[in-house]
Structure formats: structure tokens, C-alpha cells
Design goal:
The protein is α+β, with helices and mostly antiparallel strands. It folds into 2 domains: 2-43 and 162-368, Aminoglycoside 3'-phosphotransferase, Chain: A, domain 2; 58-157, 2-Layer Sandwich (Phosphorylase Kinase, domain 1). The chain has helices at 2-10, 20-32, 44-49, 58-68, 118-130, 174-187, 205-221, 228-239, 281-292, 298-307, 315-343, 346-368, and strands at 75-82, 89-97, 100-108, 138-142, 152-156, 161-162, 164-165, 168-169, 249-251, 260-263, 266-270, 277-279. The strands form 4 sheets. A 5-stranded antiparallel sheet has the order 1-2-3-5-4, with helices on both faces. It has a 3-stranded antiparallel sheet with strand order 6-10-11, with helices on one face. Strands 7-8 form a two-stranded antiparallel ribbon. Strand 10 (260-263) and strand 11 form a beta hairpin.
Length: 369
């Protein structure tokens, strides 16, 4: 293992030239390293203490709705928390609004946390829905803490079911993937001027380099050591930053099957726009690739994307963003490891110690093997 670490330090990364010996050294290091372990039994008390807060009661939501529209007969009939996500609480509310029985979804910032990204996410959702893309219909936003707790925005519940997770899909068809190619080609052709996105732009070399620096600084501030494998991947990213794309685009930023609803074999909604930003469409395509490849040849997906108005991604940009997506998701899992250590939240442990190493391994394969 010491030899492998030395190999990582001593061998420079040559742009666009694979280095089998460097890749082999990283593989040996991955095989030798032992990730953190945890015993759910030992952390039972912490997990119980970290149980997410109960959703507001039917009475509390009814009181809020009637306060929002004085004199109305708006009321809630059932409230429950939807599973999934780490940054927001998602509530499903069965209610009567304007005399119509319906289901709405509340995307809520946990009480006490900053809500700076909430309004931009709502703005992007309003923007893409207004351009006819399949997205939940936005209703209203509460930008500050309120009777129901933290700031939130409300949307209609979109029809359909989720068919996958961050690792891919379950039962997606070739036809559905081709529909996704059309969808993201349409998204990437929308005008970007004046778009208020939750995440700062990431398309020029300077913007990408600034993001890498921010990630390293954040790891340092959190007291997270950058281990040799991750360090090698970050150095690879720094030496392979692609040129500015021919056309910048609004991209979803988390375009996986986990954020897709499907109804009758068609896309009914794209969810969770909190990572949307103006960037290189190659970033979106690189994120989609692991989900699409098990279903259909990737080159055929790209051909359909281009036929629908998208621009074929440059090969070096595709490779860069494939590594990029795996590295940033691994770093997110490192943050969740801290969250588990501090709160005992079981979902954070699963993400940190099950998914985290897999993202790191995929990053290594994309960059070096």
C-alpha cells in the first residue's frame, strides 16, 4: 500500500494520455484501503435522537392554509413525509384548495437552516414548467420560517412513479431513454439570460477551476483529510479542465433516474431542481451516461440528442465530467459521513459507507483505467 501511495505522488498526470501504471497503482490502493465501519447497534441511541421531526399535523396545515387565504374553506386531510433526499424535507399533503380535492408537495428547508437556494430552485422550476418541460407545476413559496416550520415551496404532485436510483434504472426502456434525449436537448436549448439558478455557473475553465478549489477548501474547513486516491482524482481534474463549450445551457445538475417520474412508459416529471445551473451540456450527459448505457448504446442516445437540437459533446469534456460527477458525489458522501458521526442518521451512514466507496471506484475507472 505504501508503494501505491508513492506511485500516486511520483507519477505526473499527462493530459489525454492514459497511464496504465498509475491506474494499477490506484487500483492496488483501492483494494488495500479499508473504509470506515460502523455498528448500527452501537449507534441506536444516536439514530433515535436523530429521527427526522414529525410532519406538521392535519390541523396545523389546515390552520396555515386558512391563514394564507382568509375566509377560505381550504383544508388538509392527510400529511406524510416522502422518503428521499438529504437537503430538504418533502411533505405530501392531501387537501382541498379552492374547492378542489388534490395532492400537493411541500419542499421544505429544515427549521433553522439557511434557505438561500430555495427561491432560485422555485424560479428555475417555474421557468422550465413555463417552457413546457415536464416538471411539477409550481404553486407558491414561503421564503421565511412560518407556522409549518422552515421555508418551503409548494407544487402540484406530479403523476408517475420513480424507476431508479443514483446507480441506474429498473425497467427503463429504449423508448424512454430516447424520450430523455429529446427532453434534455430541449432543456439545453432554453435561453439562459436572466435565469436565477440555485448553483453558480460552471462552464468556463475559470469557473470549473474555482469549483475544484472550493471543494478542496471546504474539505479542509470540515477537517476531512483528502486521502491519496481522492487527491489523485482531484489533480486529474485540475489538469484536464476542458475548453468552454460552444453553447452554454441550463442543466438540471442531478439528471439521474432517481429524479425522474414515469407514467405509462413516458416521462411525466423531472424532480429536484436544486442543483440546476448554467454550464456545459456535457456535464449533464456525463451524469446521464451510467443510467442510459445498460439500456441502449450510448452513441445512439447521443445521436438522438443531437437530432433533437443538442450539440454533440467533445470527448475530452465528456471524460472530464464523468470523473467530475463521481468525485463530487464521493465528496458529498464524505460530508454525510460527518453527518452520521454527529447525528447517527442511518441514511447518512448508508450513503457514506456504501455509496461513497462506489463513487470513488467509478471515478478511478473513468480517469485511469
Amino acid at each position: 500500500m505504501a508503494y501505491a501511495e508513492a506511485r500516486l505522488r511520483d507519477v505526473p498526470s499527462v493530459r489525454n494520455e492514459p497511464d496504465p501504471s498509475r491506474g494499477a497503482a490506484i487500483r492496488r490502493l483501492l483494494d488495500a484501503r479499508k473504509g470506515p465501519t460502523f455498528d448500527p447497534g452501537e449507534s441506536a441511541a444516536a439514530i433515535q435522537a436523530a429521527t427526522p421531526p414529525k410532519p406538521p399535523t392535519v390541523e396545523e396545515v389546515t390552520a396555515y392554509l386558512q391563514h394564507r387565504r382568509p375566509g377560505s374553506e381550504d383544508r388538509a386531510h392527510a400529511v406524510r413525509t416522502l422518503v428521499g433526499g438529504f437537503s430538504k424535507v418533502t411533505l405530501l399533503v392531501n387537501c382541498t384548495l379552492n374547492g378542489i380535492d388534490q395532492e400537493i408537495v411541500l419542499r421544505q428547508i429544515p427549521s433553522g437552516r439557511k434557505a438561500s437556494s430555495l427561491s432560485p430552485e422555485f424560479d428555475v422550476l417555474t421557468f422550465v414548467h413555463g417552457h413546457g418541460l415536464p416538471a411539477p407545476r409550481p404553486l407558491w413559496i414561503e421564503t421565511a420560517e412560518n407556522e409549518l416550520g422552515g421555508a418551503f415551496f409548494a407544487t402540484e404532485r406530479a403523476p408517475g412513479a420513480n424507476i431508479g436510483d443514483v446507480w441506474g434504472q429498473e425497467g427503463a426502456s429504449r423508448e424512454l431513454c430516447l424520450e430523455m434525449a429529446d427532453l434534455y436537448a430541449s432543456l439545453h436549448q432554453l435561453p439562459t439570460a436572466g435565469v436565477n439558478a440555485p448553483i453558480s455557473p460552471r462552464s468556463t475553465p475559470n469557473e470549473l477551476n474555482a469549483m475544484i478549489t472550493w471543494q478542496k477548501d471546504t474539505l479542509d474547513k470540515r477537517g476531512i483529510e483528502i486521502e491519496p486516491v481522492l487527491k489523485a482524482l482531484i489533480q486529474w481534474l485540475e489538469s484536464h479542465i476542458p475548453a468552454e463549450p460552444p453553447r452554454k445551457a441550463l442543466i438540471h445538475g442531478d439528471a439521474a433516474f432517481s429524479n425522474l417520474l414515469v407514467r405509462d412508459s413516458h416521462v411525466s416529471a423531472v424532480l429536484d431542481w436544486e442543483a440546476a445551473h448554467v454550464g456545459d451540456p456535457a456535464e449533464e450527459l456525463a451524469y446521464l451516461k451510467p443510467s442510459v448505457e445498460p439500456v441502449m448504446p450510448w452513441n445512439e442516445f447521443v445521436e438522438r440528442y443531437v437530432a433533437a437540437g443538442g450539440i454533440a459533446p467533445a470527448p475530452d469534456a465528456m471524460k472530464f465530467f464523468e470523473v467530475w460527477s463521481h468525485v463530487w458525489r464521493h465528496i458529498g458522501c464524505l460530508w454525510l459521513a460527518q453527518n452520521f458521526q454527529q447525528t447517527g442518521r442511518y441514511a447518512s451512514a448508508v450513503a457514506a459507507y456504501v455509496h461513497g466507496p462506489r463513487f470513488l471506484d467509478e471515478g478511478v475507472k473513468a480517469a485511469f483505467l
